[in-house]
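FORM 7B: Structural annotation worksheet

SECTION A. Query
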Amino acid sequence: MRRRGAALGSERAAGLSVIALLLSSAGSASATPTARFDEPPRGPEASASPPPPRSSAAPPARRLPTGAELLIERGARYAARGDVGAALRAYTEAIALEPTRAEAWLALAALREASGDLTEAERLYGLLAQQRAHAAEALGRRALLRWRLGRRQPALEDLREAMGRAPTDPRWLEQLAGWYTQERQWPAALACWRRLWVIAPASERGHAALQVRALAWLVGEADPVLAPPAGQSRPELRRALAHIAQRTSEEPGALEQPTPP
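SECTION B. Predicted structure
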């Protein structure tokens, strides 16, 4: 019995020592963890920035040409090939689709004019002139046509009205000044060039200033701006203008920065 008890005691002691050894090793392992789980694992994938969020908005839709625009382009191609009949039909169909499409009216009238049908071209310009948004362009085109036909007074009236509707458009103002010059209406031409000097960019004022000074010399005392009081003459004005003209001819850059006429 004693031997058996001693053997059991030694086995129990050995078992307890093994359990203590296991507990001590487990405790030391748990005391020094091998990784920190509050930080993400480091690596190339973890260091890369996240992809940007995708936009849910659809890309803007491309505007498709209207039926009238397609017909105008088709008419231009026909006209370039010399197929006048097909071009006329295309422009006419474009006007039927969009009666306010000025490009179709102007293209149709210009084609009629180029084909020699001047009466129809004049009528088309007149119809377009009834549309307020395009009246200035239509009146200017009709004025050019009427001047070609020798109807100068109606042409001047059209161009004056076009200038009144588009006062900052230099095309009609310069054209009107040229016509006044041809008609030897010097004061009216001078007034046009003075307006052109005002609305022209600074880099383009030299030509207008030269025209103003030349016309002022021609007009002389009839100039409503520089005219002297009644019964007085202005010989000093003529001398000054002559001096300016001589200086301009000798110094090409003299009018690059002109003074207001």
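SECTION C. Observations
Residues 201 and 208 are 11 Å apart (CA to CA). The chain has twelve helices and no strands.

SECTION D. Sign-off
Analyst initials: ____
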